[in-house]
Amino acid sequence: MRNGLLVAIALSILVGCAQQEKPQVSRWPDENFENQILAQQFKKKGANIFCDQKVYLDCYQIDRTQCLKALRPFRRECFEFATQKAGRNIASNPKFTEYYSICMVSRHTLLHVDGDYTKIGACLDEAQFDQEQLKRTLTPTTNEILQTIDADWTLEKLRREEK
Questions:
Q1: 11-39: buried (b, 16+ CB within 10 Å) or exposed (e) per residue?
Q2: What is the pLDDT of residues 73-96, one digit of tens each?
Q3: What is the pLDDT of residues 106-135, one digit of tens each?
């Protein structure tokens, strides 16, 4: 009888341990993954958002290389300005892109001291930016996505998660 009681206790412990839920492993290391990717893209390619647009280059009467050289120094400064004004949730906050654009364009315009501000402003007001080009500029490469993912999340681990 005593052995039967010990066996029953042992079995209940084993069954209880087996029934415990395994902790859910998140596929992505952070809930704000989209914000992390966008932040990385704005910090890295913020100048490209403007300099990849032919209409923008035409308004300033410069080429892409000149544009990138002028705007690259302001990427992080304008990112910080925009996040201070609009918050860190940049994925669903249109105010972020508004503040970021104002910062970048105003810095660029100030560099063109010899330029006609009213002419540049009028040109930008009428400009029709290529939305597909904007998407291409901000779409991260696979490598950029992987750099954002935690070091624990290797490519092999992600492949196993998908199966």
A1: eeeeeeeeeeeeeeeeeeeeeebebbbbb
A2: 999 999 999 999 998 888 888 899
A3: 999 888 767 677 888 899 899 999 989 988
Q: Which long-range contacts (CB under 8 A, 24 or more apart) does 41-45 make?
A: 41/138, 41/140, 41/144, 42/75, 42/79, 42/90, 42/100, 42/138, 43/75, 43/76, 43/79, 44/75, 44/144, 45/137, 45/138
Give the CA diameter of the chain: 100
> Could you tell me if 35 and 91 are in contact, meaning their C-beta atoms sit under 8 angstroms apart?
yes
Lookup: tokens for 58: 């035409």
Token pair belonging to 161: 């998660």
Q: Give the chain's count of helices (H) and strands (E).
A: 10, 0
Give the span between the Cα atoms of 26 and 17, in whole angstroms. Answer: 22
- Dist CA 98 CA 4 (whole Å): 73
38: tokens are 């966008």
